[in-house]
Amino acid sequence: MTGIIVIGGGPAGVMAALTAADRGASVELWERNRSLGRKLAITGKGRCNVTNATETEELVRNLPGNGQFLYGAFSRFGAADVMDFFEQRCGLPLKTERGRRVFPASDRARDVVEALESQLELAGIPVLYQTRAKKLALRQGRVSGVYDFSGALHPARAVVVATGGVTYPATGSTGDGYALAEQAGHSIVSPKPSLVPLETEETWPARVSGLSLKNVELSLLSGEQTLDKAFGEMLFTHFGVSGPIVLTLSKTVCAQQDRGRGLRLSLDLKPALTPEQLQERLRRDLEKYSRRIFANSLGDLLPASLIPVFVGLSGIPEHKPVNQLTREERACVCSLLKALPLTVAGPRPLSEAIVTAGGVATRQIDPRTMASKLMPGLFFAGEVMDVDGWTGGYNLQAAWSSGYAAGNGAAAYCLQEADF
To answer: Cα 58–63–64 angle (5° rounding)?
Structure first.
């Protein structure tokens, strides 16, 4: 009999398996795909933001979806521990960038996946690829193993469910863990998108699809009220907008009863400049290019692909000589640079979300061990639980920390069971 079966070869599952093996438990890892870490390999635009180099309290604050539940897990295995794991144990150099975001020094998410694969091999943990859990085996009110989809029973003293949420189903996150949890009597908080690109009513973003803007500020507005704002990088797409700051604001959008339809976005293209400073900057630019037409005078202020869109939104004739611009037209240019408007049509589908909000209700899970309060021998880790946070490495830290807690908890449970 295997001591522990861990279902799911993502970050939480791998960390649970390694931790349990470190504690002397026999472990078997199940992965429904042909390889490990398919979703992990595409995170952070293929760079993998493994954690955020901050303290427990800050980690909790950046997980507005039940982050307090993981306070103890973060305290026992926090950001510094994750960094030590990769640098000292795996030999993978890391680097810390703006906002304390931590990446592999190589900027290759694949290096993170390969480091985890190497550790599983060194620990002697067998990985069963293309293996899915159909249902839990229950005996005398406790978990006794797992049935796979062929109907075969795999006996085990404990089972860790780390199957992820329902985002990016092509990577294997299809909600399998919810059915297993419900079989054991757990409640599932209805899954919904968290950190998801946004569609806009305007169609012009498609004209600049693929354009990435850095160091801009995006505000989310309802009427005259500012609901939230974020500074950093964003991306225009064929349907609207995406990128880190859009994903951050999307959580507020998704929390609205009407899925945010009709909310407005205001894009500040020059957040480092006050309106007065921008007016002076524009005056110098227009003086510099006084012999040009309006459409050819904005190259120092805007990316080339955005200029035709900007000119159209301004209402100023593109061929108008710069030296003929009126005071009102100059003011319009400044206003658009500080508040380029967009209207939210709604979030993209759940399948395109970076993170799932919802999942196994945390009130039914022991926060110290990630053990089920309803079914002895059952443990949870990662995104399958109702925990989610902002971009910046916080969601992956939640996966590492909860996986560590579940691995410790499952190993201790197996040792206790073996004594009977």
So the answer is: 115
- The structure tokens listed for 180 are 């297993």
- List of domains in the chain: 2-192+355-418 (3.50.50.60), 197-347 (1.10.8.100)
Single out the residue of 39, 72, 36, 6 nearest to residue 410, CA to CA.
6
- Cβ within 8 Å of residue 65, ≥6 positions away: 194, 357, 386, 387, 388, 389
d(Cα 207, Cα 288) in Å, to the nearest integer?
A: 28
Closest-CA residue to 103 (of 53, 54, 55, 50): 50
pLDDT in tens, 201-227: 999 999 999 999 999 999 999 988 999
- Gap between the Cα atoms of 54 and 56, Å rounded: 7
Amino acid at 333: V
Q: What is the DSSP letter of 170?
A: G
Q: Are 403 and 387 in contact (CB under 8 A)?
A: no
pTM of the model: 0.87
Phi, psi at residue 246, to the nearest 5°? -70, -40
User: Would you give the DSSP letter of residue 365?
Assistant: B
HEC secondary structure over 20-68: HHHCCCCEEEEECCCCCCCCHHHHHHHCCCCEECCCHHHHHHCCCECHH
For residue 24, give the nearest of 332, 407, 375 by alpha carbon: 407
Q: At what angle do helices 11-22 and 394-418 cross, to 10 degrees?
A: 40
Nearest to 165 by CA among 183, 148, 154, 178: 178
What pLDDT is recorded for position 420?
Answer: 42
